[in-house]
Input
Amino acid sequence: MKLVTMLAGSLAALAAIPVLAGVTAPPAAPIEVVTDDYYGTKVDDPYRWMESGKDQRWLPWLKAQSSYTRVVLDALPGRAAMLADAARLSGDVAELRGATQIGQTLIYSKRLPGAEDRQIFVRTGKGQPRLLFDVAKFGNGKLALDWMRHAPSARISVAGLSIRGSEHSSIYLIDIATVKVTDTGIAQAEISSWRPDSRGFTYLKMVGTPGQPDYYINAQPRYHDVVTGKDILLVPRDKPPVAMTEQQLPEVAFVNQGPGALLAVRDGRQQYALYAAPAQAVLDGKAAWKSVAGFDDIVVNHSAWGDRLWLLSRKGDGNGRILLTSASNPDLAAAQVIELPGKPVINFINAVSRDALIAETVGEGGQTALWRVTAAGAVRQIRLPMPGTAYVNNAVDGVSATVALAGWFSPTKIYRLDSQG
Output
């Protein structure tokens, strides 16, 4: 209550300050309207010039905004005490994220108190954690870690690193045993999935100009073989095998522990179109993609394991329905429908084994509830160690998944969740 009271008082004080140290107002941004046409809908953007990063007005304007903000914040009565309270309660603790369990190997990221960047650690069994990757040292403070994906073999990790603030990732490979980092030379790319045998991975390659509106235009879904170094285009953009515009993003992902592959075509909305094909045919350039769901089916999330394809659809039910069909021979019309008790809002679904799925829902006060759903239609809520916000990381080996759980003022803890929930 003390923190809330101080915050309310500071905001009231902010509203009462008309002039601060001679600074009367934040600097105005130049307005230069650029109009885009999105499928017949015209949208005006008055600040497109800011996206370039090369405009000579950008940094001076940004620094002036920062100076004005600093003056306003420093003048707030009680701000220093409020900041100290917030740091004591939440900021001066280590932050854990992105834990992945593969057999006896646990890989996770950790941001130490006061640090700006995360470090990646690996632990085998009950042994001591060892540092796998320190982006601050590797990039001399100039690079940021955007994401990491670990091979099912637990031998290689793929890291997305970008120049700080740009979020335009380049792909790096990290040998988990030797901690050797290799630049693959793949710039402007985001990984989609690892091949089940860990031989390679699919990724989405952006071919537009970084920082410009055309950055995502005609993005290419590709496959990179880590053994041979071979890199191939999986879906040609000039003659796409499925309905697709140049603005849409096609992502190809291998099915976990299965022989199939899935193609998701996205256009910025939450729902997307989904197609299926044999993985080997996709790699050979001979895939005949079969439609799983169209945009009108309002599929917003999917997860597959073996030949089981789970879908989260909001068609006819804004809270979401779980559908189960075959990954190799999908039939949405005949899909099994599984409902959760009380029909809560379903956020995500994660297949953790061939026969089980974990569904994340929103409970009271925005807290997460987790449910174990089986292919037989059995549904059971999972009892969490404490109330809070939970994030489930997909199981890779079908034995266990990880759950990152955090409360309002409780630091994130990583829990192991076996396939039985």
Remarks:
- Confidence is low (pLDDT under 50) at residues 1-21.
